[in-house]
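ugh ok fine here u go
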Amino acid sequence: MTTSTLLPNHLGGQWVTGSGAGTPLFDPVLGTELARVSSAGLDLTAGFAFAREQGGAALRALSYGERAALLGAIVKVLQANRDAYYEIATANCGTTTKDSAVDIDGGIFTLGYYARQGEALGSAHALLDGERIRMGKDPVFQTQHILSPTRGVALFINAFNFPSWGLWEKAAPALLSGVPVIVKPATATAWLTQRMVKDVIDAGILPPGALSVVCGSSAGLMDQLQPFDVVSFTGSAETARIIRSHPAVAERSVRCNIEADSLNSALLDPAATPESEAFGLLVSEVVREMTVKSGQKCTAIRRVFVPRALFDAAAQAIGAKLAKTSVGNPRNEAVRMGALVSQEQKASVIEGIARLRLEAEVLFDGGGAALVDADASSACVAPVLLGSREPAKAKLLHAVEVFGPVATLMAYDSIEEAYELIRRGEGSLVCSVYSADPAFIATASLELGSAHGRVHAISPDVAASHSGHGNVMPMSLHGGPGRAGGGEELGGLRALGFYHRRSAVQASSAALDVLAASAVALKL
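structure:
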């Protein structure tokens, strides 16, 4: 692409290029300009109305099974174009092939999962929620709760770190529900999202208006939302506050799902020893979470809690593995960790490390090693392991998330103290527990479940089969309470709930029999 290329938006059932010079997208390793994006001049009101009225009506006319077939067709299109997506991810996201797969193949896998789940819902057009309940002594009059697709649009305002998965993990349950999608990708990495949408639109799989993409500024998007629309946001807590206070949410009661900051934790069983398998599993997982996608995952481990007696051993073991991580240009096969997505993100990570160092010591800094096929002008940042022997006295360590290859090792004296310190994160997406003791895992899960959207327990018996602390699987819940945003995504068919409206139908048993013929029970 040349510097003059503006990626077109798809809105109102047509491709339209924004006005003006646009915002440039860069290769974070080479610094070269790749393309530009602009949403200036778009008729957002007409575009949202077209999606809501044309796309929504066409999708709702189909059954869940028919919409599931559309998802399956999208999967085939995306699989056929995987090579192009990998090239874009390398150029625009700075990721290695392995890290690009987390995003690209992860998104395709999630689509496939919901295609299979939706197929099982068959010819139904609504969902039955629970059993019928008598309203009185005479069984002729009863109530049945149902879930009907909302008659609005789903606006996705997505983050920069997962331009593929971030789109499809939201779009799959939305489209399966019969709700049209308008996605606004983060500007820095918008190219991959735009290209995937373009391939799907060009294939003619979805009804016009069912899938739209707006690249560039998000100005005016929230203003278009009406009461039956929904908005899903992934990003910073600061932007989340702006969205929550917008009149669309605060006054028009637009349903809102937020995934924000998260200081995810890893907890080692106090009974572990340096020779135990649980100890080795923690070390390996911490290193993986620090380096996959250069630590730019909302689920990455940020705080690592180990018994005080194992602090030094853990620091040495993690540092030794990090020292083997080559950083640089992802086009070089010797590179194991690529770049951050932009110079702005690099500056943010460096600033964040400086803040954390006010309360922590540096246990390992990979910055001394030479970058591979890259120089200091790139957006590459080597992994840094910090440490605190007195985390109970810290404040910043439990409040500041550095969105990069950075984690802090923390010592605890009792398991009760560890639980309390983990909860200081004020709500996170995931906590992983490392132990060979099923009883300890069960107790820890109950202690920490209310503060996390997911508890991922890694024991020796699942060492070769667990999905990973940071991998978000479509059959499990993704989201978290408190500072993590309070939202919920995925979780199997639970995800459909966000795009449906629950109502109670109070009627005769005969009428409810007719209703049930066009619906299917939602089995979670």
